[in-house]
Design goal:
- By secondary structure, the chain is mainly α.
- It has one domain (13-87).
- 60% of the residues lie in helices and 5% in strands.
- It has helices at residues 17-32, 42-62, 72-87; strands at residues 11-12, 70-71.
- A two-stranded parallel ribbon has the order 1-2.
- Helix 1 (17-32) crosses helix 2.
- It is flat.
Amino acid sequence: MCRNIKTLFNFDPPATDDEVHDAALQFVRKLSGSTKPSKRNEDAFNHAVGAIAAAARELIDSLETTQHPRNREEEAAKAKARSALRFA
């Protein structure tokens, strides 16, 4: 799976619509194999991004957990540490 798509569930504050849209865009880019669609495929590309963003938002809003929400700064620090180990 694409490493650019980040977990959006169970964070405090919750994922924004922009974050959900960005994840949907990355997913559609991965599936289509292109970062920018041709003019001919632009409508289909944008429709797919919107539909996936809506489905992702519905999923995130309907999920439930008993875990405490994660802190974005702590998760970012952990990701940096993993990256430093990987690319050291």
